[in-house]
Amino acid sequence: MASESGQHRLLLDADTGIDDAVALLYLLGTPGVTLEAVTCTAGNVGARQVAANNLALLELCGRTGVEVAIGSEVPLEIPLVTTEETHGDQGIGYAVLPPPRGNVSERHAVDVWVEAVRNHPGQVTGLVTGPLTNLALAIRAEPRLPMLLKGLVIMGGAFNYPGNTTPVAEWNTHVDPHAAKEVYAAYEGLPFEKLPIVCALETTERIECTPAHVDAVSRAAGAGPEVLDPGEDEGTRSRSGNAVVACVSDALRFYMEFHRLYDQGYVAHLHDLFAAMVATGEAGFEERPATVDVETGSPLTFGQTVADVAGMWRRAPNARIVTGNDPAAVFGLMVRRLSDVARRHG
Description:
This protein is of the alpha/beta class.
């Protein structure tokens, strides 16, 4: 999704979140990426805590000029449910960052999205790693938004694969399924290159970060070994003298402990990191077009994403679903990009 000049203008909407935080650090370490802004939606934690996390992470990496704007603090039609048990009370696990000095933008996230695509038509790629609330509201405000974006990458959904929130529903979609339904509907019948690339659980759960990956980031940054030992007491904090390495280590330790609690191993699924790499064009992937809809009526399957690949609904495709990826390549790239951030700003 690079422009002809090799530059990537990205507008990130996140509910930061441990894996969102790693994705943001990756973007900050990737040459040629310009972050137009970071907009915040409620999901993993409340929207105001999301904004504080994003500001603190940007300041950790010396990027104080990026606008951080809050959008909707609740889903479109249902009460907000957050997931501190997965991401910690502040959303970034055990990591503790200095309170940000910068301020949240006075603009609403919807205005940020609408003005960005109107001012730079065909140049900005959207990346949404949280619920689709802000994007749905932005499309209501500017129905041409799907065509004005250069492209869109969504982390969300699960297709012929178990959910991680209910037996059939993925977290981001389940938080606000009405918003997801609106977004997919807005893309129906658009040209293939405009359709959102959907990174769903069947491919994002393949991105299993292990202690060895964190150690590799630290060593590549020149910060020495970084040990995440499953035998250590829960809540053990990093002793790294590198602030970026310590942040990544403390955040991911919490996430690994969570996954182990649910018998998934001492790993961390970095869903949003993969989606970010798709948005920059650095991650290879396989895909298939489909017509996606979201269940909002049934208590049994609420929030489920359903993909018609065979055309049974006789509706035009509205999504490009990722069907294959290369986890080893993702982690090789993660080590390079995050170690560079740590070397420069740790």
